[in-house]
Amino acid sequence: MTPRITFAVAARVLTQIRRDHRTLAMLLLLPCLLMSLLWWMFDELPGNTFDSIGPALLAMFPFIIMFLVTSVTTLRERSSGTLERLLSMPMGKGDFLGGYALAFGVIAAVQSVLAVTLSVTLLGLEVQGPVWLLTVVAVADAVLGTALGLFVSAFAQTEFQAVQFMPLIVIPQILLCGLFVARDALPPVLEAISNVLPLSYATDAMTHLVTSADTAEVWQDLAVVVGFAVAALSLGAATLRRRTA
Q1: 244 lies in some domain
Q2: Which domain of life is it from (predicted)?
Q3: 24 lies in which domain range?
Q4: pLDDT in tens, 9-63
Q5: Strand ranges, E, within the chain
Q6: CA-based diameter of the chain, in Å?
């Protein structure tokens, strides 16, 4: 990877997104709107349901949105021939994926800051741990969605095929991350599967920050999420095709 080329790719992606106002609005505002809808649903019900499931969904929404947008955007580059032209230049696969990851990582940071700030200040999500660490976990999870989106785009021929990876990659993680059933209450086989899915660790980190001021476990979970993101980017660089089939 060459830093100059990587930053040039990132600047190009950010410029494209800035000009696409609908995509930019979806990336930055949709998690806030979804969290607001969730709060509204549970506001008048007894108990603290929003505080119970809010942290998990605060991890999921950026993850899902970044996965979809990144995978579809990368496939658009391939189907239009832009990817092939870029890779015919003095640019490695790592430069291309690194630039995309950097650009969407910047967007993920802004997206997560907005969603966490809204949830903690206006929606009343109670956090025992540091709010800045909650934001870091949200950013890491959004970057994970970006990395997985870049990875699966290598195996899709069209944008529709990229979207089809969502039931395979994303939905099982949502079902097994502990949102619906505590992970230690799952059947042994499903618990074992849950233990190797990155969204489980992001959800655990978010939930722990809400329920405890101790951050030791949070850092461990965060390291797992970052490790999965790096692995996905590495595999994406290894499997990215230079030519459109």
Answers
A1: no
A2: Bacteria
A3: 3-239
A4: 888 888 988 888 888 888 888 889 999 998 998 888 877 788 888 888 888 888 9
A5: none
A6: 60
**Per-residue confidence (pLDDT) for residue 178, from 0 to 100:** 87
Q: Please count the other Cβ atoms lying within 10 Å of the Cβ belonging to residue 126.
A: 11
C-alpha span between 164 and 76 (Å, rounded)? 15
Distance CA 118, CA 243 (A): 43
* Alpha-carbon dihedral 31, 175, 191, 234, rounded to 10 degrees: -60
pLDDT of residue 103: 87
Q: Phi then psi for 133, rounded to 5 degrees? A: -70, -35
The model's pTM is: 0.86
pLDDT in tens, 186-220: 999 999 999 999 999 999 999 888 888 888 899 99
Q: What is the radius of gyration, based on Cα positions, of the chain?
A: 18
Tokens of 90: 């003095």
C-alpha–C-alpha distance, residues 219 and 221, integer Å: 5
Measure the CA–CA gap between 51 and 42, rounded to whole angstroms: 10
Residue at 245 is within a domain? no
Q: Does residue 191 contact residue 184 with C-beta atoms inside 8 Å?
A: yes
Query: Would you give the DSSP letter of residue 46?
Result: S
- Residue 51 in any domain: the answer is yes
Q: Which two tokens stand for residue 215?
A: 């951050």
In a domain, 10, yes or no: yes
**Token couple for 81:** 């021939």
**Among 55-59, 116-120, 158-162, which is the least confidently predicted range?**
158-162
The domain total for the chain is 1
